[in-house]
Each structure stands twice: as C-alpha cells, then as structure tokens.
Request: fold
Amino acid sequence: MNDADFMRQALDLAAKGLGLATPNPMVGSVIVCDGQIVGKGFHTWEGVKHAEVIALEEAGSRARGATVYVTLEPCSHTGRTAPCADALIAAGLGKVVAASMDPNPVVSGEGFRKLREAGIAVEIMPEFQEAAEKLNEPFFHFMRTGRPLVILKSALTLDGKIAAPQDNTGWITSERARAHVQELRHASDAMLTGIGTVLADDPQLTDRSGRPRARALLRVVLDSTLRIPVESRVVRAAKDDVVIATTSAASPERRKALEARGVEVRAFDGPRGRVDVGDVISMLAERRCLSAMIEAGSKVNWAALESGAVDKVFLYYAPKILGGMESLPMAGGAGRQRRVDAILLERTTVHPIPPDEFAVEAYVRREG
Reply:
C-alpha cells in the first residue's frame, strides 16, 4: 500500500461520521508504522475524542516515529478536547500527511505550524483536497461564510412540474430516488418547508434513513399567519426539534397553543407580511446548523431562491410529463421577467438513478 491508499482509508473512515460528527467536521485518521496500519479512528460528536486521538490510543507505543494520515489539519486549540497537534507531538509521530487545511480561522495553518516547530514533518496531498472538502462541504461553507449550506431539493417531471392542478396522490419519483433524498436529509442539520406543504401533505419531515444522528433533525415550517394545525403530524411529534417561523401578525392564542405542544414559535418579519427567509437562515447559523435542506412548494422555493439564501440545488427528475398551464413549476412566484436576469447555476453534476431517473446537483452562481 502507498500514501494514496492510506489516505483513501482515512477518507472512508471519516465518512462513517456522517450525521454523527456535526457540528464538528468528519475526520478520519490512520497511523502507519513500517508499512502496516497500527491505529485508526474517526470522530463523532458524542464520542468527543477526535480521530487522531482514537488512532493514537489504538497504536500505543507503535505511534512513535510513525506516519499519521489525516483528512483534515490537526486542531491546535483547546475546545471540548485538548489540541490534537499536541497529542501527536507527545506521541512522537514522525510525519503527518493531511488531505486539507482546516478552514476554521482558529486553526487554519496553526496546527501544521505547531507540528513543524516540534520537528514533525508535514505533508499535504493536494490530489485529495477536493475529496476532503466535498466530504465536509457544509463545515467548510459554514467556516468561510458564517452561515449554513442551504440546499434546495425538489422532485420534478421532465417538464419541470412538481404538482398537478387536481389529484396529487402518489409520488413523482421512484422509491430509489426517494431513498437518496433520505440520505440528503440524514446529512442535513435542519430542513425547511412551507405551510402549504404541511396543509397539503401533513408530512412528519423526519430523517427516515434509519441511521443514527448526533442531534435531531431540526424541522422548520414557514407559516406567516400560524395556520398550522395543532394536530398536524409535525406538531404532534415535536420534541424540542420543531420551529414555526411566523410573523408578528400571527395570533397570540395560536402561538400559545403551539408552544404548549412543545413547538418553538419565532417571528421573522419580512416584506409583504411574509417570513424573512434570510433571517431564518441566520437563526440556523446561531444554532450552529452547518447545513439546511429546503423541501417545499413552488412559492417557498422561489422565495428562497430570490432571497439569495440557496447555495445549491438537488433536483430529482422522473420520466414523466404533466404539461398544462395549471401544473405547478418547481419555482413559482413572480419569477424573473427577462432571460438575462435568470438565476445562474454552475458546477453541475448529473447523478443517474437507474433505470430511468436522474438528479441534477448544481451550485448557485454568486456575483463577484
């Protein structure tokens, strides 16, 4: 095995922390002595210990003079744990090979500097940087912008419709595509929807992947006038994990009734008496939600896109055509009135979903 093989193993280990490491990044670590793996670990929030420390504990005395392969720069500051850089130095590591620098300004470059000053060789493998950043895309985005990575997800027919004008029973996409959506939910810290979706479908808005999480998926419903029924499934299932985003015009009595059910109600006054989506995203940032997924209807989708809150889209296409002028498009509202003003997407990836479906992943282009 070579350096690339060991780093791939570290990345595979890091991925085991999906849904378990947030709000920390997923990190994997492999310690190699004389060409053999003597220690490995990955980080979870509940486990507290960082990947490097877990690997060191497994390696024991064999860590002295060994090489550690780690997916992210070892931390250099004291948080919930002592600095990993200090632990590596104390163990007498000979070399640290990393896939990426830590974007956290408290750490960025400092971990490497501390290691080098202690006489430990440091190497960065640039060929794995993209994979390491993609693995921790929400964390990198949060550290660079101070706000969660917001993904707009929608299921569409080939002609871009999300709902028929009358009977909407059944699903647009297949069970296989919907299972992929649950993986996206599992990777998210929060999800947002609109009151229209709740009234039409009465969804639970839960993570149904069946996989463990470090913290519950925070469910947020945009409801300007508090129309949400207290007997709706999302309200009945609330366990300090549901926020109704409303406005100051909402009924105080309705608010009290919802709060008595364990639902948090917050006012985010925006233009035209609507909830300010940007302020809702700021609230999620305050709660250190690294990522948020929007699964909503036509109006909310457009409001989120128009506000600039959306960072990327994940659109699932089924081989169907609804047609008609009354079937709802993915994004409704006023829309852009000229082609030249269209919201632009970039870095597009098409994900095949056999036998006949596909998903489009793309990023909203930012000006400047």
